[in-house]
Amino acid sequence: xxxxxxxxxxxxxxxxxxLGAIYYLAAAMLLASVIDLxxxxxxxxGMNEDKRPILRFILKIIRVPLAWSVILLGINFIIAQxxxxxxxxxxxxxxxxxxxxxxxxxxxxxxxxxxxxxHCTSSTKIGFLKPQTLPLFDNxxxxxxxxxxxxxxxxxxxxxxxxxLASAGVVGIAVGFAAKDTLAxxxxxxxxxxxxxxxxxxxxxxxxGERGKVxxxxxxxxxxxxxxxxxITVPNSLIANGKIINESKxxxxxxxxxxAVSVAYGSDIDKVRRVxxxxxxxxxxxxxxxEPRVRFRRFGGSGLDIELLFWIxxxxxxxxxxxxxxxxxxxxxAAEGIEIPYSxxxxxxKQMPAENKIL
Length: 359
Hints:
By secondary structure, the chain is α+β, with helices and mostly antiparallel strands.
């Protein structure tokens, strides 16, 4: 390097500047090539693709930004050595810094996207990061990177951000008030997708009483298909703030059905219990495990209130199985002489009206 400096010193000042610029640019490019080669070798041989995919991807992505950053630093150093006007020198430096911000912003965005996708598909998932919420976080990451990139570019060009930020705050408040219901549904949709109180295909009962199969879960609303083949669209804010009964979830996939029946006072309880269990065992739609069971609930006003409890595999067939068992139990009670009471009232007349009384 000393010999090159001595050789350059033999030329006139203009030639010295040109040769010096070429020398420093070549040195910067050589250093960038060395860094690029080292990072490439580290990503290829130093990382296991199965165990450290994110770190391996980061090394692959930062190769180009590192190389260009070294070259741009060399260019800035060359500009500092040249006798340029302050305006032109600042212009070149600001342009190189802008290119650096764009390159590193794009690399950071690609790393964030890959990280989100990797965690979303891996076995060790983050609670709120799922395939359903991946597009949302991807869009949020892109918006954040664009905003940060614009912020640093404005700082590079010495543009005052105070007025812009104040205007953005006023606009944000106005939009928030104007679209508060939409934003409430949006955030509720994010929480629903993250918490997963239900999934597509589950049978749910919402707070207002509608029951159906979930066919779509969006950021704004949830759609469910009722047993009447009617599709109901429910805003996510109503679901998030209400009570949800998920008939497809629980300790077991199966769900329990209650068949309530009343028998007359004086009936043989053991016989009633046996008949109900036999009818449940003969129904193919009722599960044998767990076994059906009978519970004597209360002494009713007109009879003895009893419940047959049995399990089904699919909540979609709840109504059909309950209908079949109601019919079979009614016929069996009639055949066994078990009376199903109806409401009875006794009327007592304390005194008959006089025959000669004129009304």
